[in-house]
Design goal:
Length: 262
């Protein structure tokens, strides 16, 4: 879930408005109480972790990329429901779908800001096949499977990650069509300071000084994408996979540690 949505769109388009972030009462995002840790129910079960690892997307990063995921917050839906971490409702009751695995992919940094949350949704069919895949793209989402599932490797979809920004697509060339594909990793590095989703309001806060510190650091991370991609191997790292509740509880501490480091 990004705030600098289109690399160089207007502020109104780059940052989701409060109205855009909020869901109606019937579609509201999971409450703070639902997110809190403190009991075993909030942890990712062994069965769901194994499922998440089996269907985890194969992520291909630019060879010049500096920032990689630090955690995958997993939610397995076996009935229709609201995503706990993205503004959308997920429909599991399609006849060909048995379950949906939602991956909330957290990075400490996007090249333009501190805090970055991306998403992949894998729809699992009745016989264990991959029925569909969707992936986040600057606050929205795209289809994650090419025609004929050409980018499906067994149970894992191959997705490319936009250099610095981490939007996802099965076709890497789409990133180069963004108006500021090059400038976002150069002069616009750090432009957004610290951002965070609505469900962290009241937990996190920013100000001009905080944004200045983030901007100063990310200016030191400027890079030019190589346009050559390689796979980032991570599916054997079980520690990366936690429940969304666990990730939600972890993020504020990670941000505070980064701010302390800056």
């Amino acid at each position: 879930m990004l705030s600098a949505e289109d690399d160089k769109l207007s502020d109104a388009d780059r940052k989701l408005s409060d109205e855009d972030h909020k869901l109606s009462d019937e579609d509201q995002i999971m409450s703070d109480e639902d997110h809190k840790l403190g009991n075993e129910d909030s942890k990712l079960s062994d069965a769901d972790r194994k499922l998440a690892i089996r269907y985890a997307p194969r992520l291909w990063f630019d060879r010049s990329e500096l920032f990689f995921p630090v955690r995958f917050g997993v939610t397995v839906l076996r009935k229709d429901g609201v995503s706990p971490s993205f503004r959308r409702r997920l429909a599991e009751n399609r006849p060909e779908v048995e379950a949906i695995v939602e991956y909330a992919i957290y990075y400490d940094y996007d090249i333009q800001h501190l805090y970055d949350l991306e998403h992949v949704w894998v729809y699992i069919g009745r016989n264990g096949e991959v029925a569909d895949v969707e992936a986040s793209f600057h606050g929205k989402y795209l289809k994650g499977l090419l025609r004929g599932s050409a980018n499906l490797s067994g149970t894992r979809a191959v997705l490319y990650v936009q250099p610095g920004k981490h939007a996802l697509s099965p076709i890497p060339e789409v990133f180069e069509l963004l108006p500021a594909f090059a400038s976002c990793t150069q002069e616009e590095a750090g432009a957004d300071g610290l951002i965070f989703g609505d469900f962290f309001r009241g937990i996190l806060a920013t100000d001009e000084e905080t944004d200045r510190r983030v901007r100063r650091y990310l200016q030191t991370c400027r890079f030019t994408p190589s346009l050559s991609y390689e796979e980032w191997i991570y599916a054997d790292r079980e520690d990366l996979f936690v429940s969304w509740s666990q990730l939600f509880a972890e993020i504020p501490g990670r941000i505070r540690r980064e701010l302390g480091r800056l």
